[in-house]
Write a structure and sequence with these properties.
The chain is mostly helical. It contains 5 helices and no strands.
């Protein structure tokens, strides 16, 4: 079943002219995961939600539907997806 998240992810991806494979490669997850997210068959874990929000420069709340506008949450200058090493003490 399509969810707000699945529709938003597909919109962000297609607006960026990315294939599911391109997005998957860019953030280090499988194309199958992107496909299941967009079909509403699966929700991302926190780490993958963070990667998607960072990649598209949006707040995680926007991806989940808790924020209706699309505020940028991260710098668009680089994408460092080594989640485990970022903010290790936070």
């Amino acid at each position: 079943m399509k969810t707000y998240f699945s529709k938003t992810l597909r919109t962000l991806r297609t607006n960026a002219a990315l294939s599911q494979q391109d997005l998957a490669n860019s953030i280090g997850i499988s194309k199958s995961s992107i496909n299941m997210y967009e079909r509403g068959e699966r929700e991302p874990c926190f780490k993958n939600l963070y990667k998607l929000a960072t990649y598209f420069n949006v707040d995680m709340n926007y991806l989940l539907g808790a924020a209706k506008n699309k505020p940028g949450a991260f710098s668009n200058n680089s994408h460092n997806f080594s989640f485990e090493t970022q903010n290790a003490g936070a």
